[in-house]
Amino acid sequence: MAKTYEISVLPGDGAGREVIAQAVRVLETLHSKQRGVNLKLHQFECGGEYYLEHEREWSEKAEDFTTTKADAILLGAVGAKHEGQLVRLPDGNMAGYNIVIGLRQRLDLYANVRPVRLYEGVPTPLADKGPRDIDMVIVRENTEGLYIPARQRVERSEGQDFAIDMRVISTRGSERVSRFAFELATGRTGAPSDGTKRVTCVDKSNLLEGCRLFRETFNSVGNNYPRIEKDYAFVDAWTLLAIMSPEHYDVVVAPNAFGDIISDMGGALQGGLGMAPSGNIGDSKALFEPVHGSAPDIAGKGRANPIAAILSVVMMLDWLGDRHRNHALKKAATTIETAVEGTLQEGSVRTQDLCRGEWASVTPSSTEDVTSDIIEKME
Hints:
alpha/beta, Isopropylmalate Dehydrogenase, globular
């Protein structure tokens, strides 16, 4: 009997709830139509809105299932407002922090994977670039760097104060994320410009000791992959180079904070955060989520783009398929992505964020209608 995969679904807050509901529609369609795709979805409330009512970010049941029983996790966006202010925990962090950041640490999800692909039918701010030029993956170290909770604020009697954020970069952390990047490049077709399988290390090793360690470790790992080109850029220079020549890049790997920054720039290149899926991947666990936030300004209005959430489902199925050697899951991922491509290429059904450039005259479709069009093409 085929294995049933247990999926923890955490819609979160605001627009996150809307787009995850559409991703669930896609998964339910797969479950009913495609043989070998046996998914059991377990949905739990979480985030700022839940915290306001229960004084905790999620239930004990949700926490236990997600951390110990789930084969994969699908997360929306967290972040809620109350009386115009962001809902925060007593320690000052956003309510939902211990789900988003906490799960990365707790489950050791050390590789944050951000595909940056421009689909046909999606506007990009780069006037002379198109879908053939933008197809890279940014791999960000996800458990170290500046986001280690080692920080302090010191106040002095004369009214002056200063803050300290400690950055931690280890050989182990650098080694495993570099290896992840090279393994990923092994299975790709190479950079759009020349087909070369290439991994670019983006750091600030001309100034920072942690980055020197990161680059040294990257080189050591890369020596084990002689068929993949090692490439380098300082992070400030990379932001320029990636806009001028995005087609040069295949896989990019970076320390945590720098990777966080450059991957959002990647989101702009691919048409906006509504088009940006992501995975947080460890050796045995993985969490998938659209990159965008809870967007309180458009929440509940049917304007949120569901495609980032649906493409995050594609990533989840692809990862499960690789991990469990399940061809049906890999096929299902391809089915969904092909349907998304079809909707975008036709161009008449799209949310407001994609009604730009040559599609400025298109009447925006709702979140639900975009998903319905994708599901129709899947079937």
